[in-house]
């Protein structure tokens, strides 16, 4: 889902810093540690959503990209 960042985040795909107030995409994905949380949220910059390699990386974690 497209959101406006409320704090600084690191792009899951390229590592770019997403600054507070910037638009980005957030995905609810399967957790890396199921004992700690029910889901994880990964953030991606707007540029990465057009990259096939990033879409594959997001889908591998369980995110849905259309």
Walk me through the structure.
This protein is of the alpha+beta class. The chain has one domain. The chain has one helix and five strands, in the order βββββα. It has one helix at 52-60; strands at 2-4, 9-10, 17-18, 23-29, 40-44. A hairpin with a 6-residue loop joins strand 2 (9-10) and strand 3. It is globular and about 30 Å long. 17% of the residues are buried.
As a whole number of angstroms, the C-alpha radius of gyration is 12 Å
Shape: globular
Strand order of the largest sheet: 1-4-5
Helix/strand-derived category reads alpha+beta
The total of beta strands comes to: 5
Return the string of H and E elements. Answer: EEEEEH
Supply the number of structural domains: 1
Q: How would you state the average pLDDT, rounded?
A: 90
Strand content: 25-35%
The amount of helix comes to 10-25%
């Amino acid at each position: 889902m497209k959101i406006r960042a409320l704090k600084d985040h690191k792009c899951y795909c390229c590592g770019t810093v997403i600054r507070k107030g910037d638009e980005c995409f957030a995905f609810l994905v399967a957790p890396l540690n199921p004992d700690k949380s029910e889901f994880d949220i990964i953030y991606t910059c707007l540029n990465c959503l057009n990259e096939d390699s990033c879409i594959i990386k997001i889908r591998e974690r369980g995110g849905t990209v259309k």
